[in-house]
Design brief:
The protein is mainly beta and 261 residues long. It has no helices and 24 strands.
Amino acid sequence: CSSLTTIGDGVLLGTANATATVNFADTFNGCTNLTALPAGLDLSQGSSFISAFFGCASLTTIGSGVLLGTAASNVNFNNAFNASGLTELPAGLDMSQGNTFSSAFQNCGSLATIGSGVLLGTANATPTVNFANAFRSSGLTALPAGLDMSQGSSFNLAFYQCSSLTTIGSGVLLGTANATATVNFTKAFRASGLTALPAGLDMSQGDTFYEAFRGCTSLATIGSGVLLGTASSSVNFSSVFRDCTNLVTLPANLNLSKGDD
């Protein structure tokens, strides 16, 4: 489909499926000249978007009101936009029914912005959303204030090598809904551009922080009240701040007491 450039207004794809089980896996995979998902495109009945827009290098825009699996449950967004040309996730984008975002936006080197009110897995009934590799090697510059990824159980390599990612906004939620305190933050921010862990950042439900911030050479500050694994009974902190060459001080009262490695 390398010649496909446009999806016209009013295109209907699976909208009459009453059970919301439409499989959009690989539907537009490799459509390298597709430039946009038009405003109002209704893919609400989809339950699988595995590699749906994989490698769509010219796909820069998701229009307002695009519906992605909003009528379904436990939607699979594995590799959905991997290696696409997206520049932003627009404000209000609803991917709340997602259960798997593994590599969903990996290698999106132009993806700089997550708009306000973007919903990622927030409607999932159990806090088991997989964000592994979700934004790996993307062009993100910030996690916006209030971003809700509270239902996550795995952030393994989620923001790995996001070299432009300097900021975690206030009120960002990372796995906080996981009552079992078994959230995996392995290499979550490794080799990212983070300059600070903001005051009050709550990563208390983590039990694995192996190399979570390793190689964050611009990380200079850990704010007051940052919580790392405090809700867990035993935490792996192995190499958590290794090679953070600008981090010179651990703040007063930083609690790493649950560490076992």
